[in-house]
Design a protein that fits this description.
- The chain has about 600 residues and is an alpha/beta fold.
- Helices cover about 40% and strands about 15% of the residues.
- The chain contains 25 helices and 19 strands.
- A six-stranded antiparallel beta sheet has the order 2-3-1-9-8-11. It has a six-stranded antiparallel beta sheet with strand order 4-5-6-7-12-13, covered by helices on one side.
- α10 packs across α11.
- The longest helix has 30 residues.
């Protein structure tokens, strides 16, 4: 993986802007610590920071080719998982390759197919291509939205980058938020409306979108979507196809010229990926490295709940024995977890999922000491219906985002001046209704199947995007490339049309996936009830963040109170009522931590409210 950034300007000579380009490049150095490169021309400038995974010697970027009288230059962040197939097709068409890296395959795919090249790609990617003679910039992002790509239109041009911090280095991109940004932060955060970058002029290329910036105008359009179709296969046929898709996705994503491992939480998804990876690597004679995280004294303080009936370590040890992997534990303590809340803001460029972010950031830092690439289980719950809000009939019929039924509570934190400009319930409801309206359905299908299509679209467009943001930023902060096999678009396409009674086979969460893959896991892990990402249960965490927030509340100049009512912060510190801010992982301690991150972000990014 890499960091990419650049700018196009038709009223300036960008060959004179190398110092600015270097500043934009420098803030992305963590994403690509191995190599760096720049491209400067009159109207376009690119910068790249590289994490070398495939063909380290010859895959430097920006990369350039000339064909048919046109010269093309690319900067690219991602991995193509169908590189061999694309390479063969292009070679048969006469292309001669100079490297073994997927960057050249992607660039030559654009030369051959033009903007339709994205339809040929199976992978995770964000890239920009400049056509020198035509003087136009092509931008594209992968179908599911695993890799980020932000941009800002500026007078006379456009700036883009893998992370918001690169854009903010440009003097024409203001560090400003308006009432829409405030609504995103306090009514939807840590989620974001697709395409919004919270800062007033910052936008994000939406998943499965691509397009051109030319003659001063940017036009982006979708190149892929989930389409409704009748599912005619039997359960046995469906399970067989799921097994084929998942196995193939994992196999493709094990290709690497550097050390590779897997996240292992002891849950179904990560255990399954680890089992498939272990089997594939055994054929090459290489051991699999697996990685788990725990928290000091969690066994002592763990409390069962509806969402987390069992703790992870016993299942992790079971999988460690089953796989015979080289297993690595990371044990986190409260002081480090709380301190890393602020580092996580630097990684994400926004307030985020608080300790779920900071723990992952610290965990990835340890993983990076052993491997450069790791596989993770994101997207399985979204596609196979594993979350509680899929399975609880009352919850899934709620009119609104099922993981964030907290709008009225959140609105109480807003300063009155913003409530004069923002209709909290209307803002959130509008975002929800636009999403469910975009879920393609079949005429005459049952209310249950119709609702499940809406639920899948809600989860893919919103909840999963928050998790993918988290995984990308927290891992790339330490130069760790994380691949997510369940995000293979072929799996999403297929699962969109699989009926709910198949997904919930025999009444089990992700019953289809469990049944399809039952030969790859020990029974106690295969049939384990879903458990969320592990978090600390130590009472010191609540005490620590409460003390940190108390100190902010005592500071009359704290920027937090430009947005948030002081009396509501005082109430939060004294009232022990627990409200789900964003799913079961963000309740009272995490709300405190979110406000801490918000205060830090306003300070660190010198945010102006307009």
């Amino acid at each position: 993986m890499c960091g990419i950034t650049g700018m196009v300007h038709f009223e300036q000579d960008l060959r004179q802007q190398e110092p600015l380009l270097r500043k934009m490049q420098a803030v992305l150095q963590r994403r690509g610590p191995d190599q760096e490169g720049i491209f400067l021309s009159e109207h376009c400038a690119f910068a790249h920071t590289r994490l070398a995974v495939i063909d380290p010697e010859k895959g430097q970027q920006p990369m350039e080719v000339t064909a048919g009288g046109e010269t093309y230059t690319i900067v690219y962040n991602g991995e193509l998982y169908n590189t061999p197939e694309l390479r063969r097709q292009l070679e048969q068409a006469g292309t001669v390759f100079q490297t073994h890296c997927d960057t050249e395959v992607l660039l030559q795919s654009y030369v051959h197919w033009g903007p339709k090249c994205v339809e040929q790609c199976n992978g995770i990617f964000a890239f920009a291509i400049w056509e020198h003679r035509a003087k136009r910039l092509f931008l594209a992002r992968d179908r599911i939205g695993v890799k980020p790509l932000f941009y800002a239109e500026i007078p006379g041009g456009l700036v883009f980058g893998s992370e918001i911090k690169a854009l903010l280095q440009h003097p024409a991109v203001p560090h400003e938020i308006d009432e829409t940004g405030v609504a995103e932060l306090l009514l939807l955060g840590p989620g974001r409306t697709p395409g919004f970058g919270v800062f007033r002029t910052v936008r994000e290329v939406k998943p499965a979108h691509s397009g051109y910036f030319m003659q001063g105008t940017l036009r982006l359009a979708p190149y892929w979507a989930l389409h409704a179709a009748k599912h005619r296969a039997s359960f046995e046929e469906t399970a067989a196809h799921v097994r084929e898709l998942v196995t193939d996705a994992v196999q493709r994503q094990l290709v690497s010229d550097v050390p590779l491992g897997t996240f292992l939480s002891g849950g179904l998804d990560s255990s399954l990926l680890s089992s498939l990876a272990s089997e594939a690597m055994a054929r090459t004679g290489k051991p699999l490295h697996t990685f788990s995280v725990d928290y000091r004294d969690n066994e002592r303080y763990f409390q069962k709940s509806h969402f987390q009936p069992t703790s992870d370590p016993v299942y992790i040890r079971c999988m460690e024995r089953y796989l015979g992997s080289m297993h690595h534990w990371t044990v986190l303590d409260t002081p480090a977890l709380a301190a890393a809340l602020y580092e996580a803001v630097s990684a994400r460029d926004l307030p985020g999922m608080v300790d779920v972010d900071s723990s992952l950031l610290l965990f990835c830092r340890e993983i990076r000491k052993e491997v450069t690439v790791a596989l993770s289980g994101e997207c399985a719950d979204e596609l196979f219906g594993g979350y509680p809000w899929y399975r609880d009939p009352e919850v899934r019929q709620v009119n609104g985002f099922p993981w964030a039924q907290s709008t009225a509570y959140r609105a109480q934190f807003l300063q009155p001046a913003f409530l004069q400009k923002i209709d909290p319930q209307g803002y959130v409801q509008s975002a929800y209704e636009k999403t469910i309206a975009s879920a393609e359905k079949l005429p005459g299908e049952s209310p249950l199947e119709s609702r499940m299509r809406e639920m899948m679209k809600l989860n893919l467009d919103w909840f999963m995007q928050t998790l993918l943001d988290r995984k990308d930023r927290m891992s790339m902060y330490s130069g760790l490339e994380v691949r997510v096999p369940f995000c293979d678009y072929r799996i999403a396409e297929y699962l969109y049309n699989v009926p709910w009674d198949y997904k919930d086979w025999n009444g089990y969460e992700k019953g289809l996936l469990r049944t399809a893959m039952q030969n790859y896991l020990p029974p106690e892990v295969l049939w384990r009830k879903k458990s969320p990402y592990p978090k600390t249960h130590h009472p010191d965490y609540l005490r620590t963040v409460a003390q940190m927030l108390t100190e902010v509340a005592e500071d009359p100049g704290a920027p937090l109170f430009q947005l948030v009512r002081h009396d509501m912060v005082e109430h939060l510190l004294t009232d022990e009522t627990s409200v789900q801010w964003y799913g079961q992982l963000m309740t009272r301690p995490q709300i405190m931590a979110y406000l801490l991150q918000l205060n830090d972000w306003l300070t660190r990014y010198e945010v102006q409210i307009v």
